[in-house]
Amino acid sequence: MNARVDADSHPAVIDKLSRLDRFLPVWIGIAMVIGLLLGRLVPGLGSALNHVQVDGISLPIAVGLLIMMYPVLAKVRYDRFGTVTGDRNLLVSSLILNWVLGPALMFALAWLLLPDLPEYRTGLIIVGLARCIAMVIIWNDLACGDREAAAVLVALNSMFQVVMFAVLGWFYLSVLPGWLGLEQTTISTSPWQIAKSVLIFLGIPLLAGYLSRRLGERAKGRTWYESTFLPRIGPWALYGLLFTIVILFALQGDQIINRPLDVVRIALPLLAYFAVMWGGGYLLGALLGLGYERTTTLAFTAAGNNFELAIAVAIATYGASSGQALAGVVGPLIEVPVLVALVYVSLALRSRFAPQARSSSPVPDRRTP
């Protein structure tokens, strides 16, 4: 993604997006349709894609996510991390939204809206426990959020995820339902499975992005790096995103078409979840006076989920054809169009924020020539 709005230009935000970014909903819609058609019309495609994996990690999805995340993380100015880690309001707010509000909200919505569908309900609770890693960085960048803050918050929540995922899974699937007299279930996952997801989907592109900036600036200087190198790799974030969407829809295209009412039932709590988490993050950031960029980052990191981890855990525990796995897959299928729409909502709200001076030099405009 190679477009960003100037820090002090509020009007005509959409007009300042690159040609690629301006028609993002169109490209995503086309990718969804292609994925659905491939999954429906090509016999055995979903099964074949499911078998292309290494140590339980889907290779096609991994490739798409890594291609998607690398250009954005290569744009991060890692020398600005100190200004983010010193912002306690931002860090504490993110932890509360992600690890207190998020899981509790998904638990409540799943039981309220899916009381008669235990498999889907459990799948959604697992989605609520898997916090942001990959796509949230794309949504944040498109909405002109704070890149450095996004990288720090994703890393922070990833560390919490390694420690807290299994504990919260046990609490929300077994302990809390028992207290409330509801049906109990279990979850089977290991710290290594979670750490592996974090290392692959965050560690690899983060290290690659850091080394690119460090070595690129040392060899050619910051001007060359930001004016020549970054525009060349920028569009690959979109290509990776679209490839990932095609794969996701192809994997479950047959089930989505054959079980539309189930998909709608799963989608309802997800829609409510994304709206509350994003809106709550946005409201909290505005009340704390974080400014547009960090408020946007807080909102998107609160609303995003690590769908790869949720799907992997659901498949490992309940099986690839289970309702829990289907709920995990429907998660990103709903998240993608909803958060794309929220990108535009966020850009439209930008003019309501007073311009704030950044703690470091402004990010240059990245419009495509």
TrEMBL record:
GO terms for molecular function: antimonite transmembrane transporter activity; antiporter activity; arsenite transmembrane transporter activity. Keywords: Arsenical resistance, Cell membrane, Membrane, Transmembrane, Transmembrane helix, Transport. It comes from the Bacteria. GO terms for cellular component: plasma membrane. The chain crosses the membrane at residues 24-45, 57-78, 90-114, 120-139, 151-173, 193-212, 233-251, 271-291, 298-319, 325-349. It holds the Pfam family SBF. GO terms for biological process: response to arsenic-containing substance. It is a multi-pass membrane protein. It is found in: Cell membrane. The keyword Repeat does not apply. Belongs to the arsenical resistance-3 (ACR3) (TC 2.A.59) family. This is Arsenical-resistance protein. It comes from Mycolicibacterium hodleri.
